Amino acid sequence: MDSELLSVGIDVGTSTTSVIFSSLLVRNTASGFTVPALSIIDKKIVYRGGIHVTPLLDESHIDAGRVREIVAGEYAKAGITPAEVSTGAVIITGESARKENAAALAASLGEFCGDFVVATAGPDLESIIAAKGAGAQQLSQQRGCTAVNLDVGGGTSNLAAFCCGELCAKGCYDVGGRLVRTDEAGAITYVSERLRPLLEELGFSLPLGAPAGEEGLRALTDRMASLLGEALGLLPVTDRLPPLQTAGSSAFSLKQKIDALSFSGGVADYIYHPAKDWRRYGDIGLLLADSIRQSGWFRCCNVVPPLETIRATVVGAGSYTTTLSGSTIFYSGEGLFPLKNVPVLALDPGTERSCLAGECGALREQACWFLQQSDADNLFFCLRQTQNPSYREVGALAGALAGAAEELPPGQPLLVLTRYDFSKSLGLALWRLLKGQRPVVSIDSVQAGEGDYLDIGKPLMDGMAVPVVCKTLIYG
Amino acid sequence: MEDILEMITRAVMKELENLPPSDAAQVSASPAKGPSQAAPPAQEALRDLSGGALVDLTSDAMVDLTSAAMVDLTSAAHKAVPTLQNPQNPEALAGMKRRTPARIGVGKAGPRLRTDTMLTLRADHAVARDAVFRDVDPALLGELGLFSVQTLCQDRNEHLTRPDLGRRFSPETTNELKAKCRQAPQVQIYLSDGLSSQAVDANARDILPSLLDALRDYGITAGTPFFVRFGRVPAMDAVSEALGAEVTCVLIGERPGLATADSMSAYIAYKATVGMPEARRTVVSNIHKGGIPAVEAGAHIAGLIKTMLERKKSGVELQL
Fold first, then answer.
1. Structure confidence at residue B28 as a pLDDT band (50, 70, 90)
2. Is the domain A126-310 a CATH 3.30.1490 member?
3. What distance in Å separates residue A475's CA from the closest CA in chain B?
4. What is the pTM of this model?
5. ipTM for the complex shown
């Protein structure tokens, strides 16, 4: 009775690009005496691709054609056709996400890779995905502790903390191994603008073309490492930290004591296994690894090995981005799926209360405004407060939502997501009210909020549940 | 080296800040004693009763204790507080408690349950007994427009002691059913008290209209709903035979446990007959606020009945 979902993960990072395929096993975990409860019970990586250098046309453009070739090559090597892939995520991470053509690349890769493969980005989401790929969530759940993962890549360091399996803090800072690059002769070829305040503080500069002196670079990476300590809350925060917070990310703020700290990302391998020749990759990644390993805060922490280092993000993208909806849901036709990039309109508590009373005025106004603002032709009405509604309240909610749906362009389906379990009942009530005027999709048990986008895949196992990917999209 | 020292200082300062004032005072006065050892036994017992707040017996605040202690022991809020003292990992314990209504994290007093746990257990047991011995609210039946019939049981005691009588009707009752109900419907839905009248009170208002509306949406005709007092599950077989329904579904109160007395089950069978094997019944259990909400259960059961009518099977024969 199990069902398998083949999932792809593609990570186009600041320095490297990689692809993995994993198999997600879906099973009805409920006993025969209750309502079904589908869940993903196992995730297995079935193919690990190589680590490729991310091809760039210039500093502000990714070479989309060559990225596509790399991905196509990995599909061929794995012996998998895009048609076989039913879910997954393309994630464009770190500095790459700020390249001018990142959005277009994500869209074109998504189309090439399979019917329901989503393009996703945003530094916070990246932190969470990397931490899950590195196994921090699992560890915190198994041991009932607070586990933090620090994914140190080429352009950014992504932090995420889990407490007893629940996400409790996330953040991203522009600290990475390729913010300074050198050529084969050891001359400096690139220094990220983001490092300027640090260099000023340290009192030296790194002119392009000049030979890279180890002493100066070590001073720089030592300071970068101490900034990571500040970000983790292990050192007092200095003025230098806030400006380095990646655009569009949260400030990492953790109240709990860190019980376990893991490192992932390209730099992580060299934190755990010191390298001799720091010039090997023509950047400061290995020096940064040394600085982190030798810093005081590092030695005070319980550092644990991650499940994945350089592939943490891609494994996270392939294995941890897809969730399942609740198993009692409603949709008026299978042809509606997949739904892609639908923005979420999260109802505020006040509006939700007025909807429960059957009033649709406030919601209608918000829907109208939201559609104009987001320039989208549909949205997901997301109800997060209502739990255990009475049947009368379900009817009132349906009335309010059907009223607000008049703001949607003709023919667009009415899409509703509830946090708690009552979407089948609500969906049926909506379908009854709309009398076939427009299709209806009503799903539950997925957490989403303002600013999120949802992708919904084709129904699984006799239509009991649908795969859902919740993401934030921030490019450039 | 410097940042290590700084870190240690910060950690110590933070810990001191986190201690409640009284504990901090005790620590500074007699560092060897832990806060719990410092409390005299009488105060310990009170801490048990009031769910963690330490009360000074000698102070005037004692007067307030009676009102402060009037908490609903069976409430979710009361049970959410772990009474285990000094857990090694309070967050992990809180996380586990959120996942189960079971009595975990309660600690013990020597080999026995602590007072608070014991009282809560007895309060929960009282709720369960009430749920069994009570009758369904007649106003509710009126509101839902349900008429009532009774099995062969004459009173609650007989209902509990004679399950065989709780599954049969007198010839007069059978005739009444035939007279008042639509004959040979596609599906016959009815409610029954079973072993928890409270479950009917808690869920009927939401599950019945949700189920009937959903059946209508699927184009399925339902018979006339009614209520059976002193009913056991197999009474549905007698109902099925009396009315000639293709599918029969009873919404019945489950035997209450110590976690909830509100739980309802739906037993559903295709062409049920008296004496058929139990394996022919399909069941959806755990219908209550903490399980599947009543409105959602109604919608789900409608879908199940639709499948049953299509495949002309129920119970273990119906592979979903």
1. very low
2. no
3. 36
4. 0.81
5. 0.83
